[in-house]
Amino acid sequence: MTATKSTATKSSMSAEVADKIRDAIINAAFDFGEALSEENLAAAFDVSRTPIREALNLLQLEGLVNIVPKSGTYVFTPSLEDIIELCEYRACLELQAAELSAMRNPLNLAAALERLLGQMEQAVHDGDIRIYGQLDTQYHLAFLENAGNRYLMQGYRMIMGRVATLRTQLALHAKNEPKRSMHDHAMMIQLIRENKISRLKTVLWTHIMRTSDNFMQAFQDNPIKPLTQKEVVRRKLQQGGAL
C-alpha cells in the first residue's frame, strides 16, 4: 500500500510539473528551441530530477519538447512543414467534432462558445494577448468537449499544446489576427443556432486554413532561431537567475 501511494504521489508530482512547464511554453515564457535544464527546473520546483525528467518525457509525447541524447532538452521548433501538417490534422479533428457537437449538443455548445467569445472580446479590449490565446484554445476545445467522442478528444489533446503555442506566437506577431478570428467565431455561433452545419464546417475550415497561412507568414517574417547558450545565460542573468 505504501509503495502504491508513493508511486501515485510521484506520478501526481510529475503531472503537476508538466502542467506548469506546458503552460510556460504555451504562453511564450520560453522561446522556440530554448534549452530546458533539468537542474534549474528541479531547483525552481524544489523537487528532485526524477519528476522533472518524467514531466519532460510527457511533454515530449505531446511534441512540446525534444529530448536529444547527450545534449539536453529543448522547446520544440516548428518548421513550415510542421505548421502545415499540424493545421491539416487539426482541421480534420475539429471539423468532425464541430459536426457531431452541433448535432448532439447544439444548445450547450452555442452557450459555451458565446461565453468564451465575450471573454475574448474583453481580452482584446484590455490588450491581453496571452489571455486571448488561452480563451481561443478553449473556444476550439469546446467542439471536442461537446462531440461525445473520446477518441477525437484523445487525438486532439496530443496536438493541443503545439497548436496553443503557435496561436500565442501568432497573436504576438500578427496584431490584427484576434479581431479577424473573433468575426469567424461569432459567425460560427450563429450558424450553430441556425443548424447550418455544412456552412459551419466551411467557415471553420477556412478559419483554420487562414490561421495556417498566418502562422507561416509570421514565422517567415520572424524566423525562428534557437537561442545560443550564451544568449540563454545572458537572459537568465538579466532575469536575476529566474527560469
TrEMBL record:
Transmembrane segments: none
Keywords tagged on the record: DNA-binding, Transcription, Transcription regulation
HTH gntR-type domain mapped to chain residues: 11-78
SUPFAM superfamilies the UniProt entry points to: GntR ligand-binding domain-like (SSF48008), Winged helix' DNA-binding domain (SSF46785)
InterPro entries: GntR_C, TF_FadR/GntR_C, Tscrpt_reg_HTH_GntR, WH-like_DNA-bd_sf, WH_DNA-bd_sf
One Pfam family hit: GntR
Gene3D superfamilies: GntR ligand-binding domain-like, Winged helix-like DNA-binding domain superfamily/Winged helix DNA-binding domain
SMART domains: FCD, HTH_GNTR
Domain of life of the organism encoding this protein: Bacteria
GO MF, one annotated term: DNA binding
PANTHER family given in the database record: TRANSCRIPTIONAL REGULATOR, GNTR FAMILY, TRANSCRIPTIONAL REGULATORY PROTEIN
Name of the featured protein: DNA-binding GntR family transcriptional regulator
Lineage: Bacteria, Pseudomonadati, Pseudomonadota, Betaproteobacteria, Burkholderiales
